């Protein structure tokens, strides 16, 4: 297990795109210390901010996070990264494989464009978690994003594939969804606003957009499969899927092949 | 031919000749075991012989709720065809007409293999654009599986996107039971069928697993590819070419298809042992097997290799 230990709060935002088990595996500790991570003219390197201990393994622990740590695990293609602390924006953006865990909270755009692997945020996530960055075609795109705490607004905005599991989230969760699945204990107003396809499961929601129509309660095989695939990740969410649910179909202002399941209990 | 016996019943020293076929398995589930079985029975109807029916199909086993992907009672069905394309055609027709139509039924891939056969991805067109695909992680393997959800009048028909055909499936393993009268010989054949079906991955596609109209290649009638196996017809005894001794009054055959050559051999072994064990009480005269001289099928199952309880080595010679 390789370890990076934070010396002190970084003086500027840091870009961790190139700090992952694969890129560090071929480097000596001295070479790794020279990796540029700064985002200003100061020219900060990894060694300036972190004490480095490498053993070439596939797992990397970052002891000491910061809300200034951007793009942690971005484009990760295997192995695991565990951050003890917070991270900044675009956690695991474009990630393809592997596992990424943050014990604290994440900034905006966590998991944007991630096509594979599992991202776990044990604290809260900012706005647009699993959402598309500006001009991007899609948000989450096949990966699994687990947020144990609360996510901000626009969770899974324009997500295309994959699964988001969240404690609670703000308004417009699943807005513009292309497809995929979001499961939440509670969501804010207008879940699935403009969604084309996809599934949103929620224990409770705020105002439901008027272009969603209620189709009633249904005992579908799909819900059994959903409950079974959620169970290993979160029993509470699995119970939600297995319980009594009311279904809304929408957003009929667009393609209208999406669905919103809300607990009927 | 050397004289072989098993449980005191003569076993002719010959072999069953079987063929490489394309095979697949699907899992059918329903809210109740009864309705899963109704769907499976309907789907495997009129599937005794590839030549006439397009496919050979049968029920492999019933599955308990903890053995199926959706936690409902299920049935595993095996389907065999000459080649993957023909198999695909039959699978689509049978799932489309018998599983899609059956209340409450869902359909999943039941075996892994190298060849993909599009299933849900083809049947979804019945949904007229309202069908949606859903990719969910399998809780057991962690790999994602893709399903199609087609709106139907009782809710949704859920069907896995594709199933897989296996390499190495074998069709045509067989045994012939030479008996004295019909009722008793049928009992022997039934006992053999029960034993053969207990082997996982093997089915017996004929009615009740038993066929009375064994065939030979070719015919005296021009253009007929196959015709009655006159050497084993009791009413043709006494003519040149008959294989039946005077005391034989009835011959019944069982035919076995399986996903692996090993399963065919084990199924034949189980059937041979069960039939001969019960044979003396039911007037069984001898057991033999059908072949075409060994030039048509790649798999030869020699009965002498099946006399031991356990396989000594690979019974199906390549």
From TrEMBL, chain A:
Q: Could you list this entry's UniProt keywords, alphabetically sorted.
A: Oxidoreductase
Q: What is its EC number?
A: 1.2.7.12
Source taxon at top rank: Bacteria
Keyword Oxidoreductase listed: yes
Q: Does the keyword Oxidoreductase apply?
A: yes
The record's listing under InterPro entries reads: Formylmethanofuran_DH_suC, Glu_synth_asu_C_sf
GO MF term (any one)? formylmethanofuran dehydrogenase activity
Please give the name of this protein: Formylmethanofuran dehydrogenase subunit C
Automatic annotation (TrEMBL), chain B:
Residues covered by the Formylmethanofuran: tetrahydromethanopterin formyltransferase Ftr N-terminal domain: 5-152
Reactions catalysed, as given in the entry: N-formylmethanofuran + 5,6,7,8-tetrahydromethanopterin + H(+) = N(5)-formyl-5,6,7,8-tetrahydromethanopterin + methanofuran
Q: Transmembrane among the record's keywords?
A: no
Where does it primarily localize?
cytoplasm
Enzyme Commission identifier(s): 2.3.1.101
Please state what class of enzyme this protein is.
Answer: transferase
Statement: the UniProt record of this protein carries the keyword Acyltransferase: yes
Alphabetically, the GO molecular function entries are: formylmethanofuran-tetrahydromethanopterin N-formyltransferase activity
Q: In which pathway does it act?
A: One-carbon metabolism; formaldehyde degradation; formate from formaldehyde (H(4)MPT route): step 4/5
* Compartment list: Cytoplasm
**InterPro entries this protein is in?**
ForMFR_H4MPT_ForTrfase, ForMFR_H4MPT_ForTrfase_C, ForMFR_H4MPT_ForTrfase_fd-like, ForMFR_H4MPT_ForTrfase_N
Q: Write the record's keywords in alphabetical order, separated by commas.
A: Acyltransferase, Cytoplasm, One-carbon metabolism, Transferase
Query: Superkingdom, according to UniProt?
Result: Bacteria
Q: Which residues form the Formylmethanofuran: tetrahydromethanopterin formyltransferase Ftr C-terminal domain?
A: 155-306
**Stored Pfam families:** FTR, FTR_C
What's the stated role of this polypeptide?
A: Catalyzes the transfer of a formyl group from 5-formyl tetrahydromethanopterin (5-formyl-H(4)MPT) to methanofuran (MFR) to produce formylmethanofuran (formyl-MFR) and tetrahydromethanopterin (H(4)MPT).
Which family does this protein fall into? Belongs to the FTR family.
The record's note on quaternary structure and interaction partners says: Homotetramer.
This chain's protein is named Formylmethanofuran--tetrahydromethanopterin formyltransferase
Q: Which organism is it from?
A: Methylobacterium adhaesivum
């Amino acid at each position: 297990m390789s370890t990076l230990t934070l010396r002190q709060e970084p003086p500027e935002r840091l870009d961790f795109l190139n700090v992952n088990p694969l890129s560090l595996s071929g480097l000596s500790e001295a070479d790794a210390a020279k990796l540029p991570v700064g985002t200003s003219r100061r020219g900060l390197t990894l060694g300036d901010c972190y004490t480095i201990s490498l053993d070439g393994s596939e797992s990397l622990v970052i002891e000491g996070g910061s809300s200034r740590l951007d793009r942690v695990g971005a484009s990760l293609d295997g192995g695991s990264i565990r951050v003890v602390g917070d991270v900044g924006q675009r956690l695991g953006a474009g990630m393809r494989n592997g596992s990424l865990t943050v014990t604290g909270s994440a900034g905006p755009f966590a998991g944007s464009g991630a096509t594979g692997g599992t991202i776990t945020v044990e604290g809260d996530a900012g706005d647009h978690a699993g959402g598309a960055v500006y001009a991007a075609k899609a948000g989450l795109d096949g990966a699994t994003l687990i947020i144990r705490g609360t996510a901000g607004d626009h969770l899974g905005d324009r997500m295309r594939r994959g699964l988001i599991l969240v404690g609670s989230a703000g308004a417009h969760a699943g807005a513009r969804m292309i497809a995929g699945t979001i499961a939440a204990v509670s969501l804010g107003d207008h879940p699935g606003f403009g969604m084309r396809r996809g599934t949103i499961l929620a224990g409770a929601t705020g105002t439901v957009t008027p272009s969603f129509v209620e189709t009633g309660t249904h005992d579908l095989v799909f819900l059994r499969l959903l409950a079974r695939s959620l169970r290993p990740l979160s029993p509470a969410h699995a119970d939600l899927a297995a319980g009594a649910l009311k279904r809304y179909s929408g957003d009929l202002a667009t393609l209208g092949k999406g669905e919103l399941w809300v607990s009927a209990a | 031919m050397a004289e072989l016996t098993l449980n005191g019943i003569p076993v002719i020293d010959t072999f069953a000749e079987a063929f490489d076929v394309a095979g697949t398995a699907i899992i059918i589930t329903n809210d109740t075991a009864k309705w899963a079985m109704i769907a499976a029975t309907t789907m495997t109807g009129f599937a005794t012989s590839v030549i006439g029916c397009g496919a050979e199909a049968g029920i492999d086993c019933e599955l308990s709720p903890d053995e199926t992907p959706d936690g409902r009672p299920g049935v595993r069905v095996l389907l065999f065809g000459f080649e993957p394309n023909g198999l695909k055609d039959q699978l689509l027709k049978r799932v489309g007409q018998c599983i899609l139509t059956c209340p409450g039924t869902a359909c999943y891939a039941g075996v892994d293999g190298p060849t993909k056969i599009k299933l849900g991805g083809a049947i979804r067109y019945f949904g007229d654009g309202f069908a949606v695909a859903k990719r969910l992680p399998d809780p057991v393997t962690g790999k994602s599986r893709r399903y199609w959800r087609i709106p139907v009048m009782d809710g949704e028909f859920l069907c896995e996107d594709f199933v897989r055909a296996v390499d190495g499936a074998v069709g045509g393993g067989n045994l012939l039971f030479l008996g004295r009268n019909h009722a008793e010989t049928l009992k022997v054949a039934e006992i053999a069928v029960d034993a053969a079906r207990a082997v996982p991955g093997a089915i017996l596609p004929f009615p009740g697993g038993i066929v009375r109209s064994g065939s030979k290649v070719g015919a005296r009638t021009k253009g007929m590819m196959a015709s009655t196996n006159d050497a084993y017809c009791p009413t043709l005894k006494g003519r040149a070419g008959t294989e039946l001794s005077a005391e034989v009054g009835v011959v019944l055959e069982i035919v076995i298809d399986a996903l692996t050559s090993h399963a065919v051999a084990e199924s034949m072994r189980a059937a041979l042992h069960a039939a001969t064990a019960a044979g003396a009480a039911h007037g069984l005269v001898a057991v033999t097997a059908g072949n075409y001289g060994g030039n048509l099928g790649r798999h030869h199952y020699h009965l002498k290799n099946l006399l031991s309880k356990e396989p000594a080595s690979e019974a199906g010679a390549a």
